[in-house]
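Hi U.,

Before I forget, here's the chain from the pilot set. I'm dumping it here mostly so it's searchable later in email.
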Amino acid sequence: MKSVWMVLATLVLLCALPAAAQRNDKKENANTRSVQGVVQDGADNALEGAVVQLKDTKSLQIRSFITKADGAYHFHGLSRDIDYELKADHKGKSSDSRRLSNFDSRNQAVLNLKVQ
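Structure:
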């Protein structure tokens, strides 16, 4: 009889773990945001191979993204409590820095970068 209860208890725990993890993912997603955009040249052409850098202004950690043919970039899982600076480099030229402020309430911000 004890073994039956142990099996049932184990099954209950195994079923509860994914539900708890899913709640934590939703809670984490509510506290994060993302930023995306396109890197273009002065003539508004998408730039393939541009390096977009995202700098966490609190920890100074830098994440990078290399654009594909469409010039698009994206960063996910960003804290809502931190400002971020973005800039793009391509073949020795750079874009102006853009700031994603912690006051920006959008879940998915769009910041396009122009390399000139």
